[in-house]
Amino acid sequence: MVQPTPVQEGCIPAVLAGRDAIGTAHTGSGKTAAFALPILQKLAEDPFGVFALVLTPTRELAFQLADHFKSLGAGMNIKVAVVVGGLDMRTQSKALADRPHIVISTPGRLLDLFESSTGLAKGFSKNVSISLGFCQDGERHSTGKGRLGCPGR
């Protein structure tokens, strides 16, 4: 990479500033680097415990993203855990218990692990639980259109 792509120019400064960013671009335009590089930059400043959760719709994309994070963060000795359906849940629970820096998961499998292990859910922040559709009362609420969320969010 010599010069950032348009999606990277638009997203990286916002993410580094702690703001939400949505970027759309064609295949091969650097979308993964647009969110992975700021995550790795912030992780380098405070490399402790689970730092980022990346939710992705498919297993294949989860493994692709993991490869990109490992490649981009090669000099940082980062630990990445991939949590997807079709693999042993106990092995994945252990990988999460080992506190990787980056967790890349499909929402369904992460939700399954949270529901099957109370200790695992306690190890993650409230915000991660909310992003999976759990609220402070421990219940899941539908926000319509097939989405889960918390009232008032």
From TrEMBL:
Molecular functions (GO terms): ATP binding; hydrolase activity; nucleic acid binding; RNA helicase activity
| SMART domains, per database record | DEXDc (SM00487)
PROSITE patterns, per database record? HELICASE_ATP_BIND_1 (PS51192)
Return the SUPFAM superfamilies for the record: P-loop containing nucleoside triphosphate hydrolases
| Keyword flag Nucleotide-binding | yes
Question: What does the organism's lineage look like at the top?
Answer: Eukaryota, Viridiplantae, Chlorophyta, core chlorophytes, Trebouxiophyceae
Q: Can you quote a single GO CC term?
A: cytosol
Any idea where the Helicase ATP-binding domain is?
12-129
Give the protein's recorded name. Answer: Helicase ATP-binding domain-containing protein
